[in-house]
Amino acid sequence: MNWDKDAIFKALSDSNRRLILDELSERNELTLYELTARLIMKHGLSISRQAISKHISALEDAGLVQSKRKGKYRVLMFNKEPLTDLLKGWVE
Amino acid sequence: MNWDKDAIFKALSDSNRRLILDELSERNELTLYELTARLIMKHGLSISRQAISKHISALEDAGLVQSKRKGKYRVLMFNKEPLTDLLKGWVE
DNA sequence: AGTATATGCAACCAATTAGTTGCATGTCAA
DNA sequence: TTGACATGCAACTAATTGGTTGCATATACT
């Protein structure tokens, strides 16, 4: 796979998106609603579902989040692949 | 040192800043003018010295660039330290 | 069928940001 | 000390972006 470094770094540049990755990394396969609930409850974020949905789009464009449809739900999964070799050239 | 992840990721989210890191990584201790020249000549960038100066500020805030005064010059150096453990928690 | 739930999409807004231009400061060298 | 060179700083602009609100679509359940 040929990852788009720019999309990856841009996706990682927002703290809310990094928080989303933290959540998905710890507890894989969340729906948008579950994720929203966790971000608001657990992390005290005040943000709408739609805003989080846009963050997910950015993360998907970067390949950092993948999703599959499960009936009425869409479960989100963290994909660490784009992160390997991301810093190559600067650190070993 | 306690690095500011947000500053680091934000600094890395711009392709011109990443290019600056590439240049400084390959050829350490450049002045602002030398760096500007290389970015324009070697990489075909069309950007002003002042714009690059602002990028340097962002990189310095993130700890990724350090500088020391040498008379009338200010030489820039790449500092990879903030990059270690940057992706910790997501990849090993 | 009809309602509730989960998500998708688009227009809009305020704040941030990458860039510019113009001018000021500081240091070396003749 | 005067001129040339390297950098610093501030105001302004256009584009991007994180967020919102409102409405549309899709699937499940009774």
Draw up the topology in text.
Two copies of one chain form a homodimer.
Chain A: H1 5-12, H2 15-26, E1 30-31, H3 32-41, H4 49-61, E2 65-70, E3 73-78
Antiparallel strand pairs in A: 1-3, 2-3
The structure holds a DNA duplex (30 and 30 nucleotides).
Domain HTH arsR-type (chains A, B): 1-92
Organism (chains A, B): Aquibacillus koreensis
Keywords (chains A, B): DNA-binding, Transcription, Transcription regulation
Overall description:
By secondary structure, the first copy, chain A, is α+β, with helices and mostly antiparallel strands. The longest helix of chain A has 13 residues, at 49-61. Chain A is globular and about 40 Å long. Helix content of chain A is 47%, strand content 15%. Chain A has a three-stranded antiparallel β-sheet. The model of chain A has no long low-confidence stretch (mean pLDDT 96). Chain A has a single domain (5-81), classed as Arc Repressor Mutant, subunit A. The A-B interface holds A 5-6, 9-10, 12-13, 15, 18, 21-22, 25, 78, 80, 83-84, 86-87, 89-91 and B 5-6, 9-10, 12-13, 15, 18, 21-22, 25, 78, 80, 83-84, 86-87, 89-91. The structure holds a DNA duplex (30 and 30 nucleotides). Chains A, B: InterPro entries: ArsR-like_HTH (IPR011991), HTH_ArsR_DNA-bd_dom (IPR001845), HTH_MetalResp_TranReg (IPR051081), WH-like_DNA-bd_sf (IPR036388), WH_DNA-bd_sf (IPR036390).
